[in-house]
Specification:
The chain is an alpha+beta fold. The protein is built from 21 helices and 13 strands. Strands 1, 2, 3, 4, 5 and 6 form a 6-stranded mixed beta sheet that branches. A hairpin with a 5-residue loop joins strand 7 and strand 8. Bound molecules: manganese (II) ion. Manganese (II) ion binds next to loops.
Length: 505
């Protein structure tokens, strides 16, 4: 498609000239990098302007080429995108000009997004750039490797996730995690392989049974097995006390069918063959995940007593899950964002509406308008709130968090010694739900101790975990009925001696 176009060729020539004589850390000519970025963008079916901007993305920063040159040869759009990527690089170094507007924001992802929110394609080029840098990370010294890998886990993987680019997210996570914690990576890799080997026969039997039933019903399908990525297994194990037996989706069988109705039909067929596990049927078609992911999930116990997760989705859902925004571009076959800004597209998919908000905020920023921090309603973080310490450090917490969640997030000692909280300058009850943008101050007293009554005043898993271990330490006969893994489900009734219980107001 775009590959052979004269404009793309022209861009390749220009970039090759501009980077002439420069080498990458790998020892290769520098041009190999922009060309690799180009390839990635082409794989993602990005429009030609984006591909060209990808080829030229490092020229303004690292060569004699200017934005004017680029605009003269390739037009405003390409120049705009290259400028965006360049600014983003600068923004990430100093983030100076943004600090003027957002003095309190310490959150990189937020800044990153605002810095570039004018056109989502800038972020996509940056993702492609980061992806290639990760693929060639081996050439850098170890301390740099770790730093870049960690940043990729913290900033770029969530970004890919928000753009629904599942496949990219997984690649970023897997590659980065290998550098951040190579031993753990290897350990989990082995563990997964062992599990796979052990379950293989039974899985095959389950797959055969389903396939036979589908054929009998004349349902067209594609089936593949998917093994949980190492990094998500690592994250999940942390949630489940490192108990791998409680993780049922290490291996899943995925069925891709033609339409939504067939998805439900297949679910029914699977449930008629095997016993579904209680509470493990998830309808992400009717209720998509926050990033727009759609699929039916069910975990069943097969006749061989093997626990298997099935995922059922349409081809289009599968494409979105794997390629996300890139798939959106593909399906729409137009420059989604600029077309949107110019009013040529009336409808963004509902799950991508945050892009619009981001663009509006960014437009204000570039117009020199100051933005009220609280008006930056980033739906991007719909499951999170950002609150501030009195010093202006930004802390992200799950929605529904209360002052004690905040306190424990700062430090477990601050949590333990909490005697009260001031939110936006006012004393509040510890049961107050924190809101986006609140400034929270925790009052502490040295000898103050946590008490079991606090369990009702905490909603995050993290704080609950910390509190429980403190309670166990100071109250030897402290017992709790529900396991801490259900922390978010039900605020537990605590059965405990209440001799030390103090009411905190
Ligand atoms: Mn680059």
């Amino acid at each position: 498609m775009t590959k052979a176009s004269p404009r793309v060729k022209q861009a390749i020539d220009l970039a090759t000239q501009a980077h002439d004589g420069q080498l990458r850390k790998t020892g290769e000519p520098y041009i190999t990098h922009p060309l690799a970025v180009m390839k990635i963008l082409q794989e993602w079916n990005m429009d030609e302007d984006t591909v060209i901007a990808g080829i030229l993305h490092d020229t303004v920063e690292d060569t004699a080429l200017t934005l004017k040159d680029i605009e003269a040869q390739f037009g405003k759009d390409v120049a705009f995108l290259v400028n965006g990527v360049t600014k983003l690089g600068k923004a990430r170094k100093g983030m100076k000009d943004l600090d003027e507007y957002l003095p309190q924001t310490g959150d990189n992802l937020l800044k990153l997004l605002i810095a570039t929110g004018q056109d989502i394609r800038v972020l996509i080029i940056k993702l492609a750039d980061r992806l290639h840098n990760l693929r060639t990370l081996g050439a850098l010294p170890p301390d740099k490797q770790k730093k870049i890998a960690r940043e990729s886990l913290e900033v770029f993987a969530p970004l890919a996730d928000r753009l629904q680019m599942g496949r990219v997210r997984v690649e970023i996570e897997e590659t980065s995690f290998k550098y951040v914690d190579p031993r753990r990576y290897e350990e989990l890799e082995k563990l997964t392989a062992e599990r796979l080997k052990k379950a293989n026969k039974k899985l095959q039997a389950a797959q055969n049974a389903v396939e036979q039933a589908l054929k009998h019903e004349h349902i067209k399908y594609k089936c593949d097995g998917r093994v949980k990525s190492i990094y998500s297994l690592h994250k999940k194990l942390a949630k489940y006390d490192q108990n791998i037996d409680r993780i049922y989706d290490i291996i899943a069988l995925r069925f891709i069918v033609e339409d939504t109705t067939t998805c439900y039909l297949v679910l029914g067929i699977i449930h008629s063959l095997f016993h579904p596990m209680d509470g493990r049927v998830k309808d992400y078609i009717a209720m998509p995940k926050q990033n727009g992911y759609q699929s039916l999930h069910t975990t069943v116990i097969t006749n061989d007593k093997q626990i298997v997760e099935f995922q059922i989705r349409t081809r289009e859902m599968h494409d979105y899950a794997e390629r996300g925004l890139a798939a959106t571009f593909f399906y729409n076959e137009q420059k989604l964002t600029s077309a949107y800004t110019e009013g040529r597209v009336s409808k963004l998919p509902a799950n991508l509406l945050w892009i619009k908000e981001l663009q509006e905020s960014a437009a204000k920023l570039t117009a020199g308008e100051k933005i009220d921090q609280k008006k930056l309603k980033l739906n991007l973080f719909a499951d999170k709130i950002f609150v501030y310490t009195p010093k202006g450090d930004i802390i992200d917490l799950p929605k529904g968090s209360m002052p004690l969640d905040f306190a424990y997030r700062l430090h477990s000692e601050i949590g333990a010694q909490c005697t009260g909280a001031i939110v936006n300058g006012k004393m509040v009850d510890l049961k107050t739900k924190l809101q986006q943008g609140d400034v929270v101050e925790i009052l502490t007293t040295k000898n103050s101790k946590p008490n079991p009554g606090w369990l009702d005043k905490i909603s995050s898993r993290h704080a609950r975990h910390k509190l429980l271990s403190q309670l166990h330490a100071i109250l030897p006969d402290f017992k709790i009925t529900t396991s801490s893994a259900n922390a978010n489900k039900s605020p537990d009734k605590t059965k405990t001696s209440t001799k030390r219980r103090k009411r905190k107001k």
